[in-house]
């Protein structure tokens, strides 16, 4: 399942649909280079979780928490290098807890991701274009991905 958005606003809209479809304990792993739109998509997801206020990149603090329909734990591993460093943040205590967890730079923990998670890859395909690839791992996330994909309104790709 692949979408292509033509603006940041469109990416946020896709995110909102994702946020609306999420439930307690869900985990989203975002892959993609700097500027690919991971934070932008996360802002949309936050809107879909009824979170008011600004969601910004948590790069400096690693984990930020927001309150909405469900709690959102927004994690960014950009600044961390080793798996050991990452494990020392205690990030895994959030995963599958009460809220929704979003991880930016999931590349850095690819090998230790849990059995089921919603894998989303973002690719820069033009100045204002981003490809968004849904690669859900596990049945629950397949259902969510399909639902969002079919209602996204963003450009479909094969
Ligand atoms: N289609 C698009 N989707 C998302 N962001 C876009 C798009 N087109 C341009 N942009 C810009 O790309 C940047 C993405 O930044 P950000 O979401 O912080 O990326 P990341 O968190 O992956 O580093 C923003 O400045 C945004 O305005
Ligand atoms: Mg970011």
Automatic annotation (TrEMBL):
GO biological process, one term: tRNA threonylcarbamoyladenosine modification
GO CC annotations, alphabetized: cytoplasm
UniProt entry keywords in alphabetical sequence: ATP-binding, Cytoplasm, Magnesium, Metal-binding, Nucleotide-binding, Transferase, tRNA processing
Subcellular location: Cytoplasm
Pfam families: TsaE
Top-level taxon of the source organism: Bacteria
A GO MF label: ATP binding
InterPro entries: P-loop_NTPase (IPR027417), T6A_TsaE (IPR003442)
PANTHER family linked to this entry: TRNA THREONYLCARBAMOYLADENOSINE BIOSYNTHESIS PROTEIN TSAE (PTHR33540:SF2)
Family: Belongs to the TsaE family.
The protein, known as: tRNA threonylcarbamoyladenosine biosynthesis protein TsaE
Annotated organism of origin: candidate division NPL-UPA2 bacterium Unc8
Gene: tsaE
């Amino acid at each position: 399942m692949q979408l292509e958005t033509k603006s940041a606003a469109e990416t946020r809209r896709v995110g909102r649909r994702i946020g609306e479809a999420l439930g307690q304990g869900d985990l989203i792993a975002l892959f993609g280079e700097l500027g690919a739109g991971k934070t932008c998509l996360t802002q949309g997801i936050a809107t879909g979780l009824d979170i008011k206020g600004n969601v910004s990149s948590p790069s400096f603090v690693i984990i930020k928490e927001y309150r909405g329909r469900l709690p959102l734990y927004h994690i960014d591993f950009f600044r961390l290098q080793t798996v050991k460093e990452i494990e020392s943040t205690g990030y895994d205590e959030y995963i599958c807890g009460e809220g929704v967890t979003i991880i930016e730079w999931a590349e850095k923990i690819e090998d230790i991701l849990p059995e089921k998670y919603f894998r989303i890859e973002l690719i820069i395909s033009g100045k204002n274009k981003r490809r968004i690839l849904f690669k859900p791992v596990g049945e629950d996330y397949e259902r969510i991905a399909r639902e969002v994909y079919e209602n996204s309104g963003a450009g479909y790709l094969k």
